[in-house]
Fold each of these.
Amino acid sequence: MKIHIARVVAAFWLLVLSLTSLTLAQTSTETNPTSSSVTTTGGTVNSIPLFTTATNIQSSILTQTGTASVNVLGKLTLPNMGVATATAGKNSQPEGFVASAFNSSTSTAVAQTFQLQAEPAGNNTAAPSGTLSLLYGSGTAAATETGLKISNKGVITFASGQTFPGGGPFCIETAGGFGNGGTTFVAPGFTVPAQNKCAPWSGFTKTASTVILTTNGAACLSTSGKTMTVSVSSADPNFLGTNPAADYIQLTRASSSGSFTSGTDQGEFAGSADQLTCTSALLTLPDIHD
């Protein structure tokens, strides 16, 4: 009887060892495959790989330089985010640029996000088109329209309140301004000079009720940027005769930027002087005038 028990125990352990070996062999096969169906015919150093077929890898048009630069050797397309319908068009995927600026009040860095994206224009019309728009968002806020965009004709629409350092209309009223018993000097394309610099003044001057004089001269900005001196000569033989009128205007402001808020004219049209907004009426130059 003892011999039979020993044989049973031995057979049991042989069975355990056999099952253990089989399990280990199966696990090794499952976790460590000995072959792969994906192949490659070779690639270029620093190129990011691309599956050219389901089983082949080759170089793509993307390359990486170090850890800080990725190069696209071709057109980068940001497709639309859907197909337009009569109800609404679809924007393109945006291209984002993110800077970081430190906020001293909160002692934290704040993300400054700018985005460019193509947007539909004239959707569900006979002449649909698109625009390229600039968006901006601060911190975790979603980027929203800034108002700056370029049409499909290349025409730029600027954000509300956009001003330019030069080339815009500039008007100076003296003694109450034109229409109020005084005079207004108009330069349709004037550039405020840089500090300690001068710029040409060219335009016309409106005075009395219907008189328009041709005016030319120069404007110089002080070193502090707070005072601009405008020295001009105006001519209109019907109003002034053969002798042009001279005006020496000084405009002042509280800081080196912004609008001028007060001043004086010591010339032909003497009196207080102020910068004012050039209205369409002031900028209108009729064919016939006194």
Note: DSSP finds three helices and 17 strands in the chain.
Amino acid sequence: MLTIAEIGVDQLIVDEMQEFRKLSFATNQTTLKGVDPDGSQRAWDLYVKTRYIDATRNPGRALIAASGTPITNSLAELFTLQRFIQPDALQERGIQEFDAWAANFGETTTELELQPSGLYKPVTRFCEFVNVPDLMTIYRMSTDVVLKSDLRQYLRLPRSQAAGVRSSRRRRARPSSPISASSRSASRRSRRGRGSRRRATTSCSRSSPTAATPRSTSASSADP
């Protein structure tokens, strides 16, 4: 079996980095909700390979990670992401341990929550980030955030099918030429003319029985 040293890999490019978010770490806050110190074998395997490449072959450029959702469930996932991509920056600032990192950038709250037993119990959990400008300054040292507005400079986004249907309907509703518009107006005038003649014929047919009734009456009176 070949090892990663024998293969000669000098950089790892990983897409969907959120799949490796469960990296184990040591902490004294084991009862803190929103923090899961237990990791997965998948994340640990990637972390070990990244540290090896960074130490032996390609310092500072061992991993290129991409993700559309770097934080999915808990605030501790940002700490895990920084451990992957910028461990030296955390080491320089003395926040390489989770408890030190959380004390600087995480806010905890304690609230009463209803338990399955029907009783209320105080629960402490991470609720929000603090010192966000400092955290983003460190984070953006090694990351590049791409927004949808940035993609429009390089990509041509496809139009949705619903938008195409609406535009085709608008094109059908518009007159194609002045000739077709005049023909439609002429057809409307002809329909109005037929409608007026139909109303005149109907009025005449309704008045004819009234005129014939005296004649029939007079004929029947002349028989005796």
Note: Residues 200-224 have pLDDT under 50 and may be disordered.
Amino acid sequence: MPTVYIVDDSEVMRARIAESVSDIAGVEIMGQSGDPFEALDCIAKSQPDIVILDIRLPGRSGIDILKDIKKESPAPIIIMITNYPYRQYRQGCMAAGADYFFSKINEFEMIRETLSRIGRDDQNKIQPPEKKERIPIIKSFDGNRNTPSPKLDRRNRS
């Protein structure tokens, strides 16, 4: 049974996520926290299969926490959530190892759908999504990962 740990500074949001996913067959919420430091400690001790992680947290960035979590082996599946679904956040999270990235504003139901699929697909073996489901790091026209492609970002044209 996949286990889930929720990290969000909003108690209301943590409760909303927990309520949304609590009845998914094959998924168990093992804990939650609004404090990033407490969350890291609890995640290290409990080793959940999946972490739902907010980007903006008091005292520490969710992206920094993501990087710390992904250093562990085996690393859990990470679902990043935010009220600020800007492209640079999405790209930063995916580059840091996030498996999913959802806006709390208009993709909240994707959290439940993703957990339902994970719980349904394989209750005995948790795997991150196939690469085709991940948002790719797009190489520019010259092959350099750090140079934006003019086709993707007109603001960076010379």
Note: The beta strands are 3-7, 28-33, 50-54, 77-82, 100-103.
Amino acid sequence: MTDLELQTLIANACKAAGWPIKKTLHASVVSVWINGSPYVVKLADDDGDSRMLQVACRIDLEFPDVNRVPCAVAYSPWDAKGNSQCANETIGADARLAARMAVLRCAGMIGEAME
């Protein structure tokens, strides 16, 4: 994933969470406003920030085996039109990274659908 793709994904995820972006500090680090206060989030790199995003977007996270391959799967709630976003990441050496990326991709799809 390029830096621009990651920045776009993070911008869409922040939009889905209702967090206005104050400033992009690095490809995977942004300063956002949460409840009127600035907060630096590292959505692709920090488990706590990823969990905040998961809660803000009400994303469910599961760890099923898909075709005998362990995966992290993130699901959004159903919207008024009966649609739900779903993202999955294969669990390689780092299960936490797979979970963070699944949540980030799912939130990014929610934000993109809001446009």
Note: Strands lie at 21-26, 29-34, 37-41, 60-62, 65-66, 69-75, 86-90.
